[in-house]
Recover the amino acids of this structure.
């Protein structure tokens, strides 16, 4: 048919439709679309809808031809109403909200050029190409509407065209699409991504379903969008799609199974899209994803991936990032998931040792190790108050903390003390195991003062603390005595020492004198002990033992009462040690109870 004849036929049908509408001609066909019914006229519909023409021609009688059922048209009754208006020549507005529905409905109803000039398919395609797919926000809207029109939207390539248009325009808009071949440039952009650098279109993408969102990101990367630039986009999408999960506490799950499955798929897809670049995502965001993964019971691979990522960036973490609740939902387990944190720490140590082997930058690695050591000590102190944390878990986690990461043992002592306080029914053997986690030589003076008066610690540990502190004081005195004397200041420059320095020098002098006194006491004791041994040997050689009577020598020996002299000497030594004690503790406080006195040698 020539174009001229098509135009004439189209104008004739249009005039006929207008005449039918104006004359209010009674309808001769009823169209059922879902639960809605439309009383219409065959002529306008048959002139443009190939599907309705086919259904009418296949009818066996007139009664069948007067009732038409279209149950599964894309867009439902709303889409058919717009298509019917188009058939009648009634004006209506095309927009980004209804163009996807119109295009799919026109395809389903077979409203092509074969049946009418400038039919609905052509008109919808023209709007898509000239308007809808020319702006980023419109293309995202059309794609979002197309998600409910499958599989027809896929068949007419509406979905693929929207995705390609979005990928093209996002690459034009974003700073992360500039080609870079230098890894150092990548690091600069990754560091910048820590700041709130989020493109304006990232929020618009959150309306998409997760499968459409994934296809858009893959298409963006295919066009040159850098993977590390996806971090802010993924973060915004995750925060919106995973909203409502109670991932910060224990309790019964308050989520429907269908909704749980949907969010699980979303989370696993997001994790698979995370950039592989270090520092591309914040540790707090990774912690949030890991909590959600444990709550939703995602695949093991998904959880292990997040644990490895957190381990790689553990030096940047804070305590709240590691306080992951234990989602047991039974109330019988510990409050926090210590097993997950233990695996994170093991991942960090593995990465760290590999970095030491391959890198020469030991200063940065040492600083990171020290930060991780402090972080884990704080974590131990936090979980120590939980009575459901077993001794094996506590010790196993503490033993993983490298010794070189602990400058002092104050943090470990704090965690051990809290654990002993929360578990008062521990045996002496168990207490010794817990206390063996800390090195008493590396305790600060304040920690030593506290430990020396701590009744929760085993006696052996208190003795160790006092012994090492005494050794430290002796070392300070020795070093000070061996140090060369400073030259005397000039008379004109002679000034009074600052109060702190003066008191420190006075304390050292006092310690020197007391140390000398202690040495003299020990020498006197040695001499008395030798005299006592000689006297005992003489008495034993000249005395015959009798089973019924006591000899005068033994009576004299008992009258001398050497044990009392030993006790008197020990009391004098204790007094001297008490003077050297920097904690201000009386000797009686450190004396072990009678039932454990035999264990001290």
């Amino acid at each position: 048919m020539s174009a001229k004849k098509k135009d004439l036929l189209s104008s004739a049908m249009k005039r006929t439709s207008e005449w039918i509408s104006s004359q209010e001609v009674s309808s001769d066909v009823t169209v059922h679309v879902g639960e809605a019914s439309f009383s219409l006229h065959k002529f306008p519909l048959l002139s443009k809808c190939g599907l309705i023409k086919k259904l009418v021609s296949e009818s066996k009688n007139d009664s069948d031809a007067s009732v038409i059922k279209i149950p599964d048209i894309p867009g439902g009754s709303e889409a058919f109403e717009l298509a019917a208006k188009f058939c009648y020549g009634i004006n209506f507005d095309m927009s980004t909200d209804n163009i996807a529905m119109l295009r799919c409905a026109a395809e389903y109803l077979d409203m092509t050029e074969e049946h009418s000039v400038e039919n609905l398919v052509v008109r919808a395609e023209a709007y898509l190409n000239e308007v809808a797919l020319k702006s980023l926000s419109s293309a995202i809207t059309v794609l979002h509407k197309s998600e409910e029109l499958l599989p027809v939207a896929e068949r007419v390539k509406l979905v693929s065209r929207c995705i390609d248009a979005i990928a093209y325009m996002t690459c034009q808009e974003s700073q992360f699409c500039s080609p870079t071949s230098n890894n150092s440039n990548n690091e600069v952009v990754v560091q910048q991504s820590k700041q709130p650098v989020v493109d304006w279109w990232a929020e618009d993408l959150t309306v998409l379903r997760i499968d459409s969102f994934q296809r858009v990101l893959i298409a963006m990367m295919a066009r040159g969008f850098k993977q590390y630039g996806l971090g802010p986009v993924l973060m915004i999408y995750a925060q919106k799609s995973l909203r409502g999960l109670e991932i910060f506490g224990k309790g019964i799950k308050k989520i429907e199974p269908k909704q749980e499955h949907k969010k699980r798929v979303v989370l696993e897809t997001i994790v698979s899209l995370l950039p592989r670049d270090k520092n591309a995502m914040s540790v707090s965001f990774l912690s949030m994803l890991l909590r959600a993964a444990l709550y939703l019971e995602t695949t093991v691979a998904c959880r292990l991936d997040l644990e490895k990522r957190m381990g790689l960036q553990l030096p940047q973490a804070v305590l709240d990032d590691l306080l992951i609740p234990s989602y047991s939902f039974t109330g019988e387990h510990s409050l926090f998931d210590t097993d997950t944190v233990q695996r994170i720490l093991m991942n960090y140590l593995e990465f760290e040792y590999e970095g030491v082997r391959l890198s020469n930058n030991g200063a940065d690695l040492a600083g990171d190790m020290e930060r991780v050591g402090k972080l884990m000590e704080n974590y131990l102190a936090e979980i120590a108050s939980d009575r459901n944390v077993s001794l094996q878990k506590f010790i196993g986690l503490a033993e993983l903390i490298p010794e070189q990461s602990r400058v002092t043992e104050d943090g470990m002592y704090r965690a051990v003390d809290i654990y002993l306080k929360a578990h008062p029914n521990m045996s002496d053997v168990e207490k010794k195991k817990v206390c063996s986690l800390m090195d008493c030589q590396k305790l600060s003076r304040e920690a030593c003062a506290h430990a020396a008066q701590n009744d929760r610690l085993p006696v052996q540990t208190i003795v160790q603390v006092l012994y090492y502190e005494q050794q430290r004081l002796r070392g300070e005195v020795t070093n000070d005595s061996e140090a060369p004397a400073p030259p005397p200041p000039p008379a004109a420059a002679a000034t009074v020492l600052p109060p702190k320095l003066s008191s420190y020098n006075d304390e050292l002098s006092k310690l020197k004198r007391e140390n000398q006194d202690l040495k003299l006491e020990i020498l006197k004791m040695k001499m008395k002990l030798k005299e006592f041994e000689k006297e005992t040997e003489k008495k034993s050689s000249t005395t015959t033992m009798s089973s019924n009577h006591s000899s005068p020598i033994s009576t004299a020996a008992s009258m001398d009462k050497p044990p009392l002299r030993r006790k008197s000497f020990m009391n004098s030594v204790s007094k001297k040690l008490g003077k050297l004690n920097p904690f201000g503790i009386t000797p009686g406080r450190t004396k072990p109870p009678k039932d454990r006195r035999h264990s001290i040698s």
